[in-house]
Amino acid sequence: MISEQLVDLSRLQFAATAMYHFLFVPLTLGMVWLLVIMESVYVMTGNVIWKDMTRFWGKLFGINFALGVTTGITLEFQFGTNWAYYSHYVGDIFGAPLAIEGLMAFFLESTFIGLFFFGWDRLRKTQHLMVTLLMAIGTNLSALWILIANGWMQNPVGAEFSYQTMRMEMTDFWAVVFNQMPRPSSCTRCRPAT
After folding, report:
1. Is the distance from CB of 138 to CB of 105 less than 8 angstroms?
2. Lesser CB count within 10 Å: N end or C end of the chain?
3. What angle do CA 5, 9, 12 make, to 5 degrees?
4. Which residues of 153-174 are buried (b: 16+ CB within 10 A; e: fewer)?
5. Among 64-68, 106-110, 156-160, which is the least confidently predicted range?
6. Rounded CA separation 182/179 (Å)
């Protein structure tokens, strides 16, 4: 049996990490669209001040993104270390959106962040604007898949308990993706970003 003190310490550790993570993520989600707007104005007007603003705020975005990734990866590891039984019990369902986020959205986002920082002198203005737009889309796709995983924890649809494996198993991937829970929660979590 797990002691109550261990559970309380695990909750405290997870809450502290989540608190820092939630400081950086909404700022990242909102700031990336400001970068798109500022760079769009630069491409349309040719006024260099907008390019300078985009580069300045882009550096702050990069720092914020790095801190958000650091705390986010720490949170994912805590699912396995602090909540190992829960991860074993629902890992087939809960892990799918997290894996898609990591493989699809995070790599898209990271690739275009690299192009954003190192492509100013190598890409044309319109190409760099497309890179910034795709970076914004990747950033928000990451948030979407995390919200889908969180929505499933709040409203576990598309899964059923298997008596053979003594675990939850996914029965309908699309029910998990189109769960009703992430819609209202995405508004409350992403509203501070704007």
Report:
1. yes
2. N
3. 140
4. eeebebbeeeeeeeebebeeee
5. 106-110
6. 7
Task: Please give the DSSP secondary-structure letter assigned to residue 120.
Answer: T
What DSSP assignment string belongs to 122-190? Answer: TS-HHHHHHHHHHHHHHHHHHHHHHHHHHHHHHS--SEEEETTTTEEEES-HHHHHT-STHHHHHHHHH
* CA 147/CA 183 separation, integer angstroms: 9
State residue 161 phi and psi, 5-degree precision.
-80, 135
Question: What are 128-139's pLDDT values in tens digits?
Answer: 999 999 999 999
Tens-digit pLDDT profile for residues 76-121: 889 888 888 888 899 888 888 888 888 888 888 889 999 999 999 9
Q: Could you tell me the pTM of the whole model?
A: 0.85
Nearest residue to 20 (alpha-carbon basis) of 73, 78, 71, 66: 71
Residues in the chain: 194
Sequence spans of domains, the chain: 4-193
